[in-house]
Amino acid sequence: MEFSELHLHNMKETSVAYVDICKYCLERQEGVLHPLNVMYAQTLDNAFDALIQVQLWETACGYAEKLIPCFRFYYGDVHPLMGLLHLKYGKILLYKMCLQEALNNFKQAEKILKITHGERHPLYREHLLPLMSQTILESE
To answer: Which InterPro entries match (predicted)?
Structure first.
């Protein structure tokens, strides 16, 4: 556990993507920590962000799937971070042309971000809505 805490702390202080360290931490935590354990959730979150930085989309999708229940457990259904997670995951799915899954995540993000940020917020108007429109157009 101290190993994981040390590396989580170090990752927050640097901008380098520590994909291998995150994977190693997760391997050591799986089977030891509950899937909703806060340390496991934090490691998953850092791994997800690191995977996005190095553009490992397939692995990022797997981590996002594991991360959604953690965020829901700790933050509830309506929280800005939950909305951002669905937005990020939707963007990855759109890039991979998994259009229906992407649209589902964008719809989840829309429900949340409409409440947490409002319909006038640039994140909602300039990022989410165009991505939703693009996904709908490409799926037709």
So the answer is: TPR-like_helical_dom_sf
Total of domains in the chain: 2
3-class secondary structure, 51: helix
61-116 pLDDT, tens digit per residue, is 999 999 999 999 999 999 999 999 999 999 999 999 999 999 999 999 999 999 99
Whole-model pTM: value is 0.86
* Token representation of residue 67: 């991360």
- Rounded distance between C-alpha atoms, residue 124 and residue 52, angstroms: 21
51 and 17 inside one domain:
yes
**Do residues 25 and 32 touch, judged by C-beta distance below 8 A?**
no
